[in-house]
Amino acid sequence: MKEFLCTDKDFKDIAALVYNACGIVLGEHKREMVYSRLARRVREHRLKNFSEYLAYLNSNKDKEFDAFINAITTNLTSFFREPHHFEFLKHTIVPQLLNSNKVAKRVRVWSAGCSTGEEPYSLAITLADLFPSSWDVKILATDLDSNVLAKAQAGIYTAANVNGLEDKTLKKWFLKSKDGHTYKIKPKLNKNIFFKRLNLLQDWPMQGQFDLILCRNVVIYFDKETKDTLFKRYANALNNSGYLFLGHSESMGKEHSEFKNLGKTMYQKQHNARTV
């Protein structure tokens, strides 16, 4: 018997709140996950069941809603996850940018769904030695979850988190604690990374366009209508011939003619693609 009662109506109400807030679809197969994550919130507020928690949530949205969304969202990541993306960045995208942007000397990359920071730091490590110091290279890292965003900004990881990184990478970009249990990102790496909280379904405050957007293992939680809208918005946010990377289990339909499918969940914006 479960600690707290969660009725069918409770689950439907939770699913509706999450979908309306951030477009994540919670099917029946997610019910156990929802229960386990929100039970902590019910317990913390010393409530009797999920119905009481929903009543509390509706009465205290300014205080509780962020914690509610943070509890639901999934944050699984690692350094240089899906390494073929970073190889393509290094060997194909960077040489193109060095040629096409040699006058402006400006590069913009967006990690959309940066989780605890491993992705934007992996990007920064990849780019750091490839552009001359005179170039203006910046990485925007956004996430809906304020808790993981704070962890990303702190840039402190356990030995298990950095397991698999080369020793030379650790020595160059991380400060190892005296006990060897934690590794902190060096200031020289995160000085050009800007962490911001952002709901992808709401307005985007960014004015400029990007050369590369990574939205990996994010759209898998959205329904088709939300995905289609997001892909069009990404096309609008990319420079001509800019790139979009999705996660390994995600894909884009052929109807999105504004993108060319390069394989391995990599897409390039068609030059002068018409978007709405």
UniProtKB/TrEMBL annotation:
<dbReference type="InterPro" id="IPR000780">
    <property type="entry name" value="CheR_MeTrfase"/>
</dbReference>
<feature type="binding site">
    <location>
        <begin position="199"/>
        <end position="200"/>
    </location>
    <ligand>
        <name>S-adenosyl-L-methionine</name>
    </ligand>
</feature>
<keyword id="KW-0949">S-adenosyl-L-methionine</keyword>
<feature type="binding site">
    <location>
        <position position="143"/>
    </location>
    <ligand>
        <name>S-adenosyl-L-methionine</name>
    </ligand>
</feature>
<keyword id="KW-0808">Transferase</keyword>
<feature type="domain" description="CheR-type methyltransferase">
    <location>
        <begin position="1"/>
        <end position="272"/>
    </location>
</feature>
<dbReference type="InterPro" id="IPR036804">
    <property type="entry name" value="CheR_N_sf"/>
</dbReference>
<feature type="binding site">
    <location>
        <begin position="216"/>
        <end position="217"/>
    </location>
    <ligand>
        <name>S-adenosyl-L-methionine</name>
    </ligand>
</feature>
<dbReference type="GO" id="GO:0008983">
    <property type="term" value="F:protein-glutamate O-methyltransferase activity"/>
</dbReference>
<comment type="function">
    <text>Methylation of the membrane-bound methyl-accepting chemotaxis proteins (MCP) to form gamma-glutamyl methyl ester residues in MCP.</text>
</comment>
<dbReference type="Pfam" id="PF01739">
    <property type="entry name" value="CheR"/>
</dbReference>
<dbReference type="InterPro" id="IPR029063">
    <property type="entry name" value="SAM-dependent_MTases_sf"/>
</dbReference>
<dbReference type="InterPro" id="IPR022641">
    <property type="entry name" value="CheR_N"/>
</dbReference>
<dbReference type="Pfam" id="PF03705">
    <property type="entry name" value="CheR_N"/>
</dbReference>
<feature type="binding site">
    <location>
        <position position="75"/>
    </location>
    <ligand>
        <name>S-adenosyl-L-methionine</name>
    </ligand>
</feature>
<feature type="binding site">
    <location>
        <position position="77"/>
    </location>
    <ligand>
        <name>S-adenosyl-L-methionine</name>
    </ligand>
</feature>
<feature type="binding site">
    <location>
        <position position="81"/>
    </location>
    <ligand>
        <name>S-adenosyl-L-methionine</name>
    </ligand>
</feature>
<protein>
    <recommendedName>
        <fullName>Chemotaxis protein methyltransferase</fullName>
        <ecNumber>2.1.1.80</ecNumber>
    </recommendedName>
</protein>
<feature type="binding site">
    <location>
        <position position="119"/>
    </location>
    <ligand>
        <name>S-adenosyl-L-methionine</name>
    </ligand>
</feature>
<dbReference type="InterPro" id="IPR022642">
    <property type="entry name" value="CheR_C"/>
</dbReference>
<dbReference type="InterPro" id="IPR026024">
    <property type="entry name" value="Chemotaxis_MeTrfase_CheR"/>
</dbReference>
<keyword id="KW-0489">Methyltransferase</keyword>
<dbReference type="GO" id="GO:0032259">
    <property type="term" value="P:methylation"/>
</dbReference>
<dbReference type="InterPro" id="IPR050903">
    <property type="entry name" value="Bact_Chemotaxis_MeTrfase"/>
</dbReference>
